[in-house]
Structures are given as structure tokens and as C-alpha cells.
Write a structure and sequence with these properties.
Length: about 325
């Protein structure tokens, strides 16, 4: 069974490709390397023993996209990761975000219609909730006004998919990711931020190895037990496995509705200081950090109610925080 993985050389994409291959799927990757490196392809092959098919083009280019699907009309399912994902950058470059994140999805759905491809897994984000009124947050929580063009693209994308599924014979599952961290146990694939990392975990590991001088902890005056912000960190391999289960659910016609949405987190919230403590314990390194002002646009605390995903998908995150921080460190150590 042939599955298209867009953004399959990226952080979550590459881990998902490996899990799909290990579950017997044939994978074709489309990735324009805008935030990934071509070496990832070989490293996927080192893990799985199979080099996935790969094409390099921009999915927001309608002609290139249509041409690709004409040549690959036997694709049975699509996992659509390819998108920009930096909140701050999206404020500076909104049009790039709309073109890439919305344009690519539109082109993909047009080709799903043309070539009768019925199954789409979409990368959504807990960012659609903003700061929820109730924690843990369930899938039924209201969608609040987006705080950035990035966040808005994820909200709009879910609506676009919902409208498409209503009008056409197709199925979709949107997975709302919480905070993926960590890396594959082989340390052959992991998060590869280009430039200065925005996210906490790569900033921690790069600081510990000496690439960055000091981690800034954004705010210790939040209304949380230690004052730092709380997130639901999930091991990227647990997250990758949820995609395989979502694909299987669609292929086996197990969906209860043509469009389903699931929170993909662990259900546990950890503060920034707790992540640092875990990292210091597992890496046996002291981290140089200081408390600075809050980062604009950050929510105070969010973690997932995972009951729906646990019960309906039969999926549960298995790896704890220490395993996440240790695997992230092993990955950092493996980078030259
Ligand atoms: N943090 C620091 N210092 C850093 C980086 C992050 O203290 O150098 C803190 C943040 O303030 C936050 C926590 O670590 O409290 C996690 O921050 P990340 O940047 O790693 O992740 P976010 O929770 O901001 O990002 C998540 C998703 C994004 C999504 C975003 C929307 O990973 O995809 O929520 O707010 F866009």
C-alpha cells in the first residue's frame, strides 16, 4: 500500500516514514528541503533497510503537484506534514505561511478529488486551542482566536478539510500534536533545526554541547507551581506511531465519522524547569540557563486530555520525559 508523506524528511515526517515502513507500507516522500536535509533519506534507509522514493518539489506549485499525482495515481493515502511552523516567523512573513500551508493543502485536496485518493492524515497542532479555559484540554474545547498567522493556518486547514470531506467521498484524520521532542533510539534521525532553534529541546541540547552559550527560560512568573510555563511533551516516536494507526483506521474503514480529530499528547504537563531537571539528570550535564522575560504569544499552560485518542485509536504514548530528554541528547551527541 503506497502512502505519500509530504515533509517526510522533516522531524516528525522522518520518524513517521520509518514507522510506516516497519509496518509494511510503501512510502513516497515529497519534500522541498526548505527545513530539512537530504542526508535524512539515507538515514531512514539505515534504520528501515528500505530507501523510500523521494521527489523534491514545492507542493504549493499547482502544476508540479498535479504532475506528481498524474505519475503517482496509485497512492492510497496521504500524510501531510509539509508546512512552515515557526510562530514568530509567521508574524513577519504571513504571505509565505498562507501560500505554503494553505496553498499546499488546497493543491493536495484538488488532486485527491481528481485521482480519487480517499485518505488524508493532517498535521494539526494544539496551537488551535490557544490558552484553554479547562485543562486537560479535550477535542471539544472551543477554538479561540489565533495568535499568529501560523496558528491561523492550522485552524483554517481543519475547516478546509472538514468542508472537503463533507462534499466529496473522502476521509480524514487531523492529529493535534502537543510538543514533540526526542529522537529515534538509533540516533540516526532527530530534530535538525536550521539556524537558531525556536523550540525548547534543541535549544537545551545545543546549549549543553556548547553551540549556544545559555538557555533563556521565558518567564518564571506564570501561575504554575514553579512559575514556568507548562506543556505536554511527547516523544516523537510515540507521535509517529499515532500516524500509522490513523492510516490503518482509515484503510480499514474504522472511522466513526469521515473527519475525526484527535489530541496526540501524553496527558502530562511539565514545566520548563522540570524539562531542564530531566535533561540534567539523563545527560549528567549541568545546563547553563537564566530566567528572562516571558516570550510574547506563549500560552501559560496546556496539556492534553488523551482519552479520545486512547480509547478510539487504541493508541497511547509510552515514553516518559526522561526517555525523551535522553534520546534528544544522544541525537545531539551523534551530530557532527
Ligand atoms: N522556552 C524557553 N526557552 C526557549 C524556548 C522555549 O523557555 O529557548 C519555553 C517556552 O516559553 C515554552 C516552552 O519552553 O514555555 C516550550 O516552547 P517551544 O517553543 O518548544 O514550544 P511551544 O509550546 O511554543 O510550541 C508549540 C508547538 C508549536 C506551536 C506552538 C504555538 O510546538 O508547533 O506551540 O504556541 F506553534
Amino acid at each position: 500500500m503506497k502512502i505519500l508523506v509530504t515533509g517526510g524528511l522533516g522531524y516528525i515526517g522522518s520518524h513517521t516514514v520509518v514507522e510506516l515502513q516497519q509496518s509494511g507500507y510503501e512510502v513516497i516522500i515529497v519534500d522541498n528541503l526548505s527545513n530539512s536535509r537530504i542526508e535524512v533519506l539515507e538515514n531512514i534507509e539505515k534504520i528501515s533497510g528500505v530507501k523510500p522514493n523521494y521527489e523534491n518539489f514545492d507542493l504549493s506549485e499547482a502544476n508540479l503537484c498535479a504532475d506528481f499525482f498524474r505519475r503517482n495515481a496509485d497512492i492510497e493515502g496521504i500524510i501531510h506534514f509539509a508546512a512552515y511552523k515557526a510562530v514568530g516567523e509567521s508574524v513577519e512573513k504571513p504571505l509565505e505561511y498562507y501560500k505554503n500551508n494553505i496553498g499546499s493543502l488546497l493543491n493536495i485536496m484538488e488532486n485527491m478529488r481528481s485521482f480519487k485518493i480517499e485518505n488524508l492524515v493532517f498535521s494539526s497542532s494544539c496551537t488551535v486551542y490557544g490558552q484553554p479555559d479547562e485543562l486537560p484540554v479535550t477535542e471539544r474545547a472551543p477554538i479561540k482566536e489565533a495568535l499568529s498567522p501560523y496558528g491561523y493556518t492550522k485552524q483554517v486547514a481543519e475547516v478546509m478539510i472538514s468542508d472537503f470531506i463533507y462534499a466529496h467521498p473522502a476521509n480524514s484524520i487531523a492529529l493535534r500534536y502537543f510538543n514533540p521532542i526526542g529522537a529515534h533510539k538509533t540516533a540516526l534521525i532527530g530534530e535538525l533545526p536550521l539556524g537558531v532553534p525556536n523550540n525548547l529541546m534543541p535549544f537545551i541540547t545545543q546549549t549543553a554541547i556548547g553551540i549556544r552559550e545559555q538557555l533563556s527560560v521565558f518567564g518564571d512568573d506564570y501561575n504554575t507551581p514553579d512559575g514556568t510555563a507548562i506543556r505536554d511533551y511527547i516523544h516523537v516516536v510515540d507521535l509517529a506511531k499515532a500516524h500509522v494507526i490513523a492510516v490503518e483506521r482509515m484503510m480499514n474503514k474504522k472511522q466513526k465519522a469521515a473527519f475525526e480529530i484527535f489530541n496526540i499528547g501524553t496527558g502530562n504537563g511539565y514545566s520548563v524547569l522540570e524539562v531542564i531537571q530531566s535533561f540534567e539528570k539523563t545527560s549528567k550535564r549541568k545546563l547553563n540557563y537564566k530566567i528572562v522575560a516571558r516570550r510574547e504569544g506563549d500560552v501559560e499552560q496546556v496539556w492534553a486530555d488523551t482519552n479520545f485518542a486512547n480509547n478510539e485509536l487504541g493508541w497511547k504514548a509510552e515514553k516518559g520525559l526522561d526517555e525523551m530528554t535522553l534520546s534528544a541528547w544522544n541525537w545531539q551527541l551523534s551530530l557532527k
